[in-house]
């Protein structure tokens, strides 16, 4: 099975990294092991699927790193005996699948192949969402509220009334918001808001 050629493994536990690499050595999967996301950022791969141990903040850090690089790799999270809530949170954070470790080589290869197929259908849309979210995350709470108002088609006066601030203050927040988003026009900002799933 040669669906996946490159697996980017991020796990701070050396023993587990070695065990996973060993499990996959019998398949056609090349494993690139990394201890943490920062280490990955210094030697960014050209392609692959990321298998990341689900530690607090790890998926968010990986997504921020991918957004800075302008690259999106499918993310599969894993941990030992994960609770349902933890799996849901990982998927909300950006993982496309979750694996409970330990797992047999066959199951792991099958899971990875399924994730790749799903990732191919997500492709560019997911990258745009990741990039848009990273941009929106730079905004202050007030700038985000103004963006929400702009995306809903409200005028500065109506946004001001809704937020209990003056239209002039809305204008200042709007200019800052456009600048931080790297948007030339309001329509660019609205597109970014939609891609970041701020508005439907």
Please describe what this structure looks like.
The protein is an alpha/beta fold. It has 2 domains: 6-123, 3-Layer(aba) Sandwich (Rossmann fold); 138-195, Orthogonal Bundle (Arc Repressor Mutant, subunit A). Helices cover 57% and strands 13% of the residues. It is built from 9 helices and 5 strands, in the order βαβαβαβαβααααα. It has a 5-stranded parallel beta sheet with strand order 2-1-3-4-5, sandwiched between helices. It is elongated, with a radius of gyration of 20 Å. Pfam families: FleQ, GerE. InterPro entries: CheY-like_superfamily (IPR011006), FleQ (IPR010518), Sig_transdc_resp-reg_C-effctor (IPR016032), Sig_transdc_resp-reg_receiver (IPR001789), Tscrpt_reg_LuxR_C (IPR000792), WH-like_DNA-bd_sf (IPR036388). Keywords: DNA-binding, Transcription, Transcription regulation. GO terms for molecular function: DNA binding.
Relevant terms:
elongated, transcription regulation, single chain, 9 helices, 2 domains, alpha/beta, Rossmann fold, five-stranded parallel beta sheet, 200 residues, LuxR family transcriptional regulator, Sig_transdc_resp-reg_receiver, 57% helix, Arc Repressor Mutant, subunit A
Summarize the structure.
The protein is of the alpha/beta class. It is built from nine helices and five strands.
């Amino acid at each position: 099975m040669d669906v996946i050629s490159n697996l980017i493994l991020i796990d701070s536990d050396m023993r587990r990294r070695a065990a996973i690499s060993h499990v996959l050595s019998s398949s056609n999967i090349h494993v690139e092991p990394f201890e943490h996301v920062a280490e990955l950022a210094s030697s960014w791969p050209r392609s692959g699927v990321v298998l990341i141990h689900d530690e607090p903040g790890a998926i968010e850090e990986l997504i921020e790193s991918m957004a800075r690089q302008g690259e999106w790799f499918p993310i599969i999270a894993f941990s030992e005996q994960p609770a349902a809530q933890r799996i849901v949170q990982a998927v909300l954070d950006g993982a496309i699948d979750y694996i409970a470790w330990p797992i047999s080589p066959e199951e792991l290869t099958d899971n990875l192949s399924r994730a790749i197929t799903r990732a191919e259908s997500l492709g560019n849309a997911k990258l745009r969402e990741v990039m848009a979210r990273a941009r929106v995350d730079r905004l202050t709470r007030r700038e985000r509220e103004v963006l929400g108002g702009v995306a809903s088609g409200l005028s500065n006066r109506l946004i001001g009334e809704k937020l209990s601030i003056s239209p002039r203050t809305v204008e200042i927040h709007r200019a800052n918001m456009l600048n931080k988003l790297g948007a030339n026009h309001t329509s660019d900002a609205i597109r970014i808001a939609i891609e970041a799933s701020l508005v439907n």
